[in-house]
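pasting for ref
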Amino acid sequence: EKQAEDNNSIECSKAGTMDLKFASSRKYISISVPSKSQAMSPHIKSVDDVVVLGMNLSKFNKPTQFFICVSGVFMFYLIYGYLQELIFSVEGFKPFGWYLTLVQFGFYSIFGLIELQLIQDKRRRIPGKTYMIIAFLTVGTMGLSNTSLGYLNYPTQVIFKCCKLIPVMIGGVFIQGKRYNIVDVSAALCMSLGLIWFTLADSTVAPNFNLTGVILISLALCADAVIGNVQEKAMKLHNGSNSEMVLYSYSIGFVYILFGLTCTSGLSPAVTFCSKHPVQTYGYAFLFSLTGYFGISFVLALIKIFGALLAVTVTTGRKAMTIVLSFLFFAKPFTLQYVWSGLLVVLGIFLNVYSKNMDKIKLPSLLGLWKKSVEERKSRTLSQTV
């Protein structure tokens, strides 16, 4: 028996495992020790960790997370929209929307690299092929959107972008297999109808439509509708961080745009124009990119925590507020149709928030109100009879 135990110990040492033999039983428990390369890093973040600009939102409850994300989206993107319209108000800059997108993507890549160096876990979790698709969609939504401002006025461009709520829902059905209830569908219809009504009012009061601009912003709308669902699916499947998403998607997109501008000979005229107006172009573009980067970080956090549909609802409300500020800071004609269409959008936002909290918010149904009124009539009739 002693010799057999010695043989067993020799075999265990050769296999690199520790076997425990129980008396006469022939069952063994094998415990393997992983190598150093297979050991898990102590800096790997939890699946539930959501870090935005160095702030860990997972420490807060859901309502606080929602308030922080919405506040960040509204604050930074309102400044972002103002600077975007201010850049295109520079005389002669309208043909260079793609170059502005190139500069914007360059700044985003630098900001993402800096933020990624400040966090402990620097690994790339999402596959490169997925980032190539996301980068292509990002180039489409931002590049076409910026370029459309050379053909459309700013409120019209924003209104078109706000109508992406229904495409996002359709994309959620086909890409992620989601199912939406009647309240979500009603919210999307209210918001889209209100924004379309706003567009009709704008075309009546201050028509500035161009077929090229409409095509560009429509293509940007389609890409924008898809990208939220793709980002949500990739971030939840691979647990990617916001800084990682921004760095790789915008750096790959920068290469796409640079290659396109070089092939179409659109790079040299843009560089020449911007070198003559460095403050109004590069200076504003830096602030424009900085506020946009902070805003996209909060949008990605919204997507990761609450989903693409709620994130689009928040950004749509922000765009409505951007339109209001655009009328305040830049001279434009006004009509009451803007007010009614805006109220319809607010109704859509309320319906969407209600659909997310149906278990907490109990609104009376039409059938319940009818039964209640019938019971009150019966009780009133009975009291009169008595």
